[in-house]
Design a protein that fits this description.
Elements lengths: L20 H13 L2 H13 L8 E3 L9 H19 L3 E6 L26 H16 L5 E5 L4 H10 L10 E5 L2 E3 L1 E2 L7 E3 L2 E2 L1 E3 L5 H7 L2 H7 L4 E6 L10 H9 L4 E7 L9 E5 L2 E5 L6 H4 L12 E10 H10 L5 E5 L3 E2 L5 E2 L6 E5 L12 E5 L2 H4 L12 H18 L16 E3 L7 H5 L12 E3 L1
Parallel strand pairs: 2-3, 2-10, 3-4, 11-19, 20-21
Antiparallel strand pairs: 1-12, 5-9, 6-18, 7-8, 10-14, 11-14, 12-13, 15-18, 16-17
Helix pairs in contact: 3-8
Length: about 450
Amino acid sequence: MRLLTPHGQEHLLRWWPELDDAQRACLAEQVRAVDWSTLARARDEALAAVGPIDLPIHPAPVRRLAASFEEWEQEQAAAETGQDLLREGSVAVLLVAGGQGTRLGHPGPKGAYPIGPVTQRTLFQIHAEKVLALGRRYETSLPLCIMTSPDNDAQTRRFFEEHRYFGLEPEQVHFFVQGTLPAVDAASGKALLASRHELALSPNGHGGVVEALTQSRLLARLEKQGVKHLFYFQVDNPLVKIADPAFLGLHVQAGAELSLKVLPKLSPEERLGVVVEVGEKLRVIEYSDLPAELASKRNERGELELWAGSIAIHVFDTAFLKRLAESSALPFHRAHKVVPHLDHAGCLSQPEKPHALKFERFVFDALPLARKALVIETSRREEFEPLKNARGENSPGTVRQAMSNLYADWLEAAGVTVPRHADGSSRFPIEISPLFALDAEELRGKPLNLEAVEGPLVLE
């Protein structure tokens, strides 16, 4: 009651006299775990942030893909810097993996979804094998930090244990759990109950990674180990170049605290936030928040003026993350949702219309807070095909085809003939384990004994 009364939330104990000891312990633990001052701040910030951006919005300055030999040489020099960072142990990998596979019809964590075009390797296995291959290449033990959610933490830990961490040492894999906040009634601001002894909790957004890293003390442990840079990505993208040396090198050479990769949006409607410049500060505007006339505006070449779609691939300096955590600087955003909850009579209510607010932070809101930030263009074909939907775009079929297309490109660069469809896509499913080759250059150095692809192909 001491925690709840100052914030007007004492109604959460309405059924306390009727609860048994186990239920009381559950509710008490959940109440103690909530920072009620933070919840009040989240509500106030989210309700205040309803107006449009009132400053001019300009395209962000972006380092484009290398278009000249000089730019290619600069990239190679940056890659050498990044390789040195990996060898000296100053880089860790941060995998955001709190999602479930529900939308894909898959029970359990999304990372456990089988996506390999031939072998059905899971997303987790693909990412873990990339980390393992990087460690072998650079003779280092690259820390893999995995942010789970309360819904999938136990399942994720068990999945890694059952698969013996995919060859990684257990001590180099660090699990930590994303935070939650109670949903509140939109009209009254009162926190909602999912049952008489449980709060209606929801994840606090991928921006919650900053708080979770510090509260778990993982950030402090990484810094003690000498880690200065955190490579951040999301579990649903199997094409990501984990700890890309060129990206790391460019980040350090620029003196940036935060760097991110972007690519040209396919259309104004593509569901990617756009990196822009507002009032001399870089920021990401969610696709749903960008006015339609700005989102669709094109230059004289017919290209989208605000083209730089953010794909959730970042490099953070650990010192910057520490500063963000100390200042609690990331703002909260609201989502108006339908939340099943107990009504005043203690019965489960299933509203038909959105009536509640959920609060979350976005990791890209760190961008304008960085003293120096760098935005780099990457290739969609080489690095972005996320698994989002059961059918249509960003579905298992399109992701497997994108993986096969990338591996087909690697094979052709190594002198192997690959049959193609009329649209240029690989005719056969192809899969190359990261433990066989991390990139096209490594594949070219392998004795393949293969002249042409004549059917489904696995190299491992």
